[in-house]
Amino acid sequence: MHIIEQKSNKLVKEYNTNNPFLLCSYKNILCLEQPLHEDINGFAVFYDDVWVITINKDLSKSAKDFTCAHELGHILLHKEYSNIYLNTKSHINRTDKDKDADIFSALLLIPKITNITVNYNNINDLACNLNVPLNFLKLRLTFDGYTEFSKL
Q: Residue 79: its pLDDT value, please?
């Protein structure tokens, strides 16, 4: 099992939830919603011995969940590397750490997908039915072995 999947599964099992806001509360991570520039989804910062996640208040519920999970992923996976992470709508110059945090959020928030036929024509429908961003669904599908989505 991949280390990111292990961390996600352990967290869900330990706290019996995949809600990133509840998980942050249980881990003593403060979550705030604030008005941010439209290109910024959120950020995490370590300040005065406390991790604080700030999320753009104008995001949809689903986008807030994924942003919170993404920042939680940074905190749990990368806290020894930095004390601030910025999550923007731009995918330019994204680091491997950003990709790890995206995988963490996809694994945390999207159930494992098995025994279904997924193709290029219905992936948008599946994302809508699950109420998840398409790029995160593609990550989850790729992680679950649907390799045809790894290059989309």
A: 74
